[in-house]
Amino acid sequence: MNIGFIGLGNMGGPMAANLAKAGHAVTGFDLTAPCPEGVTRADSAAAAAKGADVVITMLPNGAILRAVAADVIPAMQAGAVLCDCSTVDVDSARAVAEQAAAAGLGALDAPVSGGTGGATNGTLTFMVGGTEAAFATVKPLFDIMGQKAVHCGDAGAGQSAKICNNMILGVTMIATCEAFALADKLGLDRGKMFDVVSTSSGASWSINAYCPAPGVGPTTPADNGYKPGFAAELMLKDLRLSQQAADSADADTPMGQLATALYTQFVEAENGRGMDFSAMLPRFEARGRQD
Ligand code: NAD
Question: Are the C-beta atoms of residues 93 and 109 closer than 8 Å to each other?
Fold first, then answer.
């Protein structure tokens, strides 16, 4: 396939490289990031999109996605598919899909989980919104860049799945960290705490696979000085998107709201920026009871 790839940063760079390695003709564009090996550089986003069967975007946020989409949609050939893999707000994903459909193009919102390791190793999970036909076109590319692609529903369904998942993740990580900090203060051994909770009803991915306590359970960013991993500010971005979506859908999400407030405080006022999101544990450890 001819593929245009716009946004060649930490995630987009290795994803584009994997498509090129698999034998696809990839033309890339980024404002600053270098083109990875095997990818041909274009002078603009529109130039990268021209003549492509699929245009993939991997950009920082919804405002940038909307601007890039306005640029590339008129340059795309009829029947091509615009596939956005960034994490953006549901409203932007739907607006871009509508614009693409009006121009006779397919569109998918296909955010990922798996982080930069997954992007490099081709083991991402894609959660995808859009038509069956557009999904079928891009599926072979998802299979190269990732290990799983779930078609979640119509436009916006991929972003909806992503932010709901990450809202659960933010909440369970905070709950796990505050429980470890309480266990410490009750004199409970962390290894025993892990053994019990990871096989009891308090279990979740946050403790079983990503244990925030160093030296306990699997090897995680906690064992590496809380170097990310999944940075606290990226968790905050996703939590904010979940609350933006909850506002526009009139959904009551008190735990998501509280998790957003705690990560905001951690990132903006407590030096949490650049730390893994599981560094909530040392944060709680250092605090006493708040009234
Ligand atoms: P990044 O900042 O490394 O890459 C974004 C790239 O977009 C940058 O290279 C930037 O120069 C480029 N860009 C910005 N505006 C542009 C424009 N107008 N035209 C062309 N290029 C432009 O970010 P990343 O870590 O690669 O993340 C990309 C997206 O993936 C984000 O939406 C993020 O939330 C999501 N995501 C990231 C991770 C992760 O672990 N890094 C995991 C899952 C999802």
Answer: yes
